[in-house]
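Deviation from plan, reported transparently: zinc ion complex.
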Amino acid sequence: MDVQELNNRIGYSLSQRMRVTRLTLAITLGLILALLGVLTLAFSNQPGTKLHERSVTYIPALPPTSPPVPTPTTQRAPVASPSPTAPLPASLQQDIAFLQAQNLFFYHGNTSLPEVALTFDDGPTPYYTPQVLNILQEYGVKATFFCIGRQVANYPDLVRQEYAAGHIVGNHSWSHPNLTFFSPAVILSQLTLTSDAIQRATGVRPTFFRPPYGALNRQVLTEVYHLGLTTVVWNADPRDWSRPGTDVIIARVLGQTGYGTIIVMHDGGGNRLQTIAALPTIITVLRDHGIRFVTLQQLVDDIHTKAASSTPSPNSVVMKSPLLLKDWRRKKLMWYTASN
Ligand code: ZN
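Because the crystal trials were delayed, the predicted structure below was used instead.
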């Protein structure tokens, strides 16, 4: 074996050894990665950490109770004017009657005036709210938006637009929980944070409150009362959030609407294309029946106004009116015939 051959052999065995070392390293690395993979899989299967599932979920429907409730950081706000002097009576019905007597609780407006309030809950949302605003502008309708506080914080420009267009912006809680399940401190925090966010966006503190799900109890009413907010529920509900179809939404609204009606619809909380599609017909048909669209503030201001004519209250004529629905169907048929 000459020197050259020896050098070759040494070189060969060295490169072979290096290859073996590289292979060992690769196997070790592979094993470590595999072990990490198994561990990750094991942890990701733990309940509550299904990250993949969560990442593909579309904006979830608002839960009945929302766990991440912001902790109240403020002390109880000083009682807003007019300052309540008497404690609320015992039962919920009495509470409501007590508030109604002070114009601090409304199911509807003046049933002798041909005016209704359109209200939109659960916004603002970047896709649907601008479309609702466009339709309202096109038809020259003023409405009321009950906004969710955390969405106000996310989309303050939309809330500013609502306010700038002459609509009313109301408080619909911070995260849309069923407030009746929570302590007074949490209720207070939900309301205060939302009013703060609306005030930051519009420069004006809201005066109207709508409880999520319309859920009320004594504690909720007490906090609302202490904050000087007026509670507004509704007396026409097409349940548009359940997406029953545009025609069903139209028919339900027209069938339930009379003088002084407060109509609830939604510009957030899910797909609202049916609501948006229903809106022009609802506005047109009710206008054809001589009904004005007013903000909640106007509806409340008019609550004790006497009707100009001495004819008896016609609320039932329009509300449940088969004529109204027949008119609407005929009109729809005409539109259908005209466009086909
Ligand atoms: Zn709501």
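The chain has one domain: 87-308+315-339. We consider this an acceptable substitute for the interim report.
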